[in-house]
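ARCHIVE CARD
CATEGORY: sequence design from structure
SOURCE FIELD: tokenized fold
FIELD CONTENT:
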């Protein structure tokens, strides 16, 4: 930052302390004009001082040339103008020097002190010159005693006040523009940072959506298909011995297959409707994250509120399906039944559903207990199975396991601020417990 408040940029190509070449050309031009003026005024000064004319010319050229330093050292320029004021030279030097000083970043007390010195020097010289003019002019003597102070004050104010006020205005305007420029750059940096964070949030939202979709597909498909496989295995075993039971099992397999297809169609329809996430470049970068998050939230809400979505009222039907597959299941409901939010009901249903699916996979034939407790501020569920009839034996249907069932349940419950616990019991069975807040 130079003393005139202008930012110095080395890359701009200006020589020495000038930021641009045109600034250097302007200052050199002003210095040449000022040097010419002072050189002309130096001749009568040298004559009055009894010196050769060339001395006054050289002195005037050196004095006027000081104006080339107005951007670098405005104080020095003003001091030179004050020093040569008694010699009655350097009017341009005084005017341009005061303007440069007022437009600079100098403290206001220094500007006021130097402006006062310049005003005082100009006032004294104006008084002396006015008195000399009155002595040599009879007409001025007839005007009266007010002429000298009037001319002196008017001349002093005319030389010092306009450049000082204009310089202060230009300096204030320059500082305002610099402040606005800095603020604009700061806002651009903040917008860039927000855009980067929006991209991160958008990527996070997409990852969350992929995880949620995978969990939904797992919950919808795994339970239904597991029951279908169990019923198909039972159908194969009793097809020749008990045709009526075989027909019943075949009908159950068909019903479960249709239910699974219906749920898959509903989910895929919601996902297609929720795919309208704006492409990058179609909207400002800072809107991408918000749009992706909004689309994810909307898609999640539509899935949870879709018609026919699972809820606790369908828990009895879920247990009956497992009983129809040959599992011995006891359902116990404690507390006063009431409706909860769609997310809570769906999560509670999916936890019980996935726990029953795991029993079909890993403990076929084991007696299972399903407990549901309605509490004041929470709903709790527990699915516990006894050891299978044949210890360490795999399911007769040889159902595959992806190993993501317990992880998906824990993520669902944790997403609602609940508590999830799963592990083996002391007697060799397995227990899945979850508590969901309903506030």
């Amino acid at each position: 930052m130079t003393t005139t408040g202008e930012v110095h940029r080395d890359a701009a190509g200006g020589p020495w302390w000038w930021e641009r070449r045109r600034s250097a050309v302007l200052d050199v031009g002003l210095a040449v004009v000022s040097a010419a003026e002072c050189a002309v005024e130096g001749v009568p000064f040298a004559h009055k001082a009894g010196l050769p004319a060339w001395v006054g010319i050289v002195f005037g050229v050196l004095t006027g040339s000081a104006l080339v330093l107005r951007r670098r050292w405005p104080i020095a320029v003003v001091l030179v103008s004050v020093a040569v004021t008694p010699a009655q030279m350097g009017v341009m030097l005084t005017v341009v020097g005061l303007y440069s000083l007022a437009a600079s970043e100098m403290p206001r007390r220094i500007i006021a002190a130097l402006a006062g010195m310049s005003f005082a020097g100009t006032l004294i010289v104006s008084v002396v010159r006015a008195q000399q003019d009155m002595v040599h002019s009879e007409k001025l003597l007839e005007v009266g005693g007010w002429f000298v102070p009037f001319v002196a004050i008017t001349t002093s104010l005319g030389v010092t006040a306009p450049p000082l006020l204009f310089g202060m205005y230009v300096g204030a305007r320059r500082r305002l523009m610099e402040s606005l420029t800095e603020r604009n750059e700061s806002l651009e940096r903040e917008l860039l940072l927000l855009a980067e964070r929006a991209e991160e949030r958008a990527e996070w939202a997409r990852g969350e959506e992929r995880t949620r979709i995978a969990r939904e597909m797992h919950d919808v498909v795994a339970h239904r298909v597991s029951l279908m496989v169990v019923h198909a295995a039972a159908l194969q075993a009793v097809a020749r011995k008990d045709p009526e039971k075989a027909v019943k099992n075949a009908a159950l397999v068909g019903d479960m297959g249709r239910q699974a297809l219906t749920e898959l169609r509903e989910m895929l329809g919601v996902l297609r409707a929720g795919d309208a996430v704006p492409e990058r470049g179609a909207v400002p970068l800072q809107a991408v994250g918000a749009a992706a998050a909004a689309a994810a939230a909307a898609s999640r809400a539509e899935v949870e509120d879709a018609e026919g979505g699972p809820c606790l009222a369908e828990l009895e039907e879920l247990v009956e399906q497992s009983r129809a597959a040959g599992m011995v299941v006891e359902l116990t409901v404690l507390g006063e039944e009431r409706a909860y939010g769609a997310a809570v009901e769906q999560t509670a249903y999916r936890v019980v559903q996935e726990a029953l699916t795991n029993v079909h996979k890993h403990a076929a034939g084991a007696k299972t207990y399903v407990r549901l407790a309605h509490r004041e501020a929470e709903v709790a569920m527990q699915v516990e199975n006894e050891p299978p009839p044949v210890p360490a034996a795999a399911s007769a249907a040889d159902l595959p396991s992806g190993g993501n069932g317990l992880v998906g349940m824990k993520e669902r419950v944790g997403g609602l601020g609940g508590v999830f616990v799963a592990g083996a019991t002391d007697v060799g069975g397995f227990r899945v417990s979850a508590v969901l807040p309903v506030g």
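CARD ANNOTATION: The radius of gyration is 47 Å. Residues 10-145 form one domain.
SHELF: design records, drawer C
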